[in-house]
Amino acid sequence: MGVAVSSWRLAASVSRLGQLGVVSGTALGVVLARGLQDGDPGGHLRRALDAFPDRAAAGRILERYHRPGGRRDDGAYRAVPVPRRRSSRQFLELTVAGSFAEVYLAKAGHDRPIGINLLEKIQIPTLPTLYGAMLAGVDWVLMGAGIPSRIPRALDELAHSCPVALPLTVAGATAADQYEIAFDPQSFAGTPNLLARPRFIAVVGSHVLAAHLARGDDGGAPDGFVVERPIAGGHNAPPRGPLRLSAEREPIYGPRDEVDTGRMRQLGIPFWLAGGCGHPTALREALDEGAAGVQVGTAFALCEESGLAPQLKHAARESAALGRLAVRTEPFASPTGYPFKVAAVPGTVADPDVYGRRRRTCDLGYLATPYRKPAGQVGYRCPAEPVEDYHAKGGDPADTDGRLCLCNGLAAAVGLAQRRSDGGEEPPLVTLGDDARAVVAALAPDGRPYRAADVVRYLLGCG
To 10 degrees, the CA torsion angle through 137, 140, 141, 142? Predict the structure, then answer.
């Protein structure tokens, strides 16, 4: 659900209701830094940092980013370090502490499990994000948007506070190149030698990938799978085979993209279905097919506890109630190259006029692609950055057409929009599943607010 839409508040609410609440693990250093600069209303982030084991690192973060009373009305957020293969100490501290804070707050006040969701495509922050979550006692790790075959072993090593490395995908790398991202938990003071090892769920788009991961060739099989169909919000797996587009310029999925639940059952590993599952009938059908349950995003994204900005939730629910909310599967919007769901909420970059007025920039860099420079060093480029910059780094200018800055747009959608030098703010970007209108019709037919408890009761057939 993007950046901080599935926030600690939402995850805690869902877990208290007896289900698995999952926080988004994307750009949590940015979430922490900007939340502190907004004054940290309620003191929740400072409360989490008070519990962070590395007291010196927590002090540096507070000194650098906390602004009592918040920023000036016209003030920009202070810049945060961007992800790099050899990350700065500041980036590592902010990422570990941000992940710790999100999970710590989600787990506070109850004894129910909490999960964290990451994208395999965003490789550089993975290890510090996992470690911060484990320091806070995260119970489940979910990861998709790629092939997360190395994560079970990484979790084993992090649980023992051992140095760990993951391979880094670098565009243009040769057979002789070996690029990796290394992380040493022992570089953080006060951290324990042994941590509870969370269970791991791989998010897959097909039974074929699930079968591959179940073999555990790279150090262990997942403890479960979320099988996500292409109608789910956020990033979708691309169609298998050559990309074909409909008359509306959306990817065409076919029989090869359908999940064989019989094959999933044969793996002997629990699985959950996702994508269009925000309805009681979908839950019953999933259970009948042998699934352990369903994963639901869109219904929770529009509830009161989600991190989505209140005005965007209101606009999306109202538009859906009127039957006007459109959700497109954009084949080229995401810098990752994966299809991405974009909801046509007024005032967002889904509006061509809003998109056209935005000045292209890439100052967060979570979706930038590492690429090999001629001498073997690693550079970083993003098709959503200024076209001339992307071209200068060896990128094809044609790849920049229609690209959206997901990093800034998704941060803006949760009230963390950067203010630019011309006085304007970054426009938001909202992602929802294809079933958004049906979800609102069931939960809030007049567009009224609803809560996470309403979603759970509805799904369980309790009213």
Answer: -150
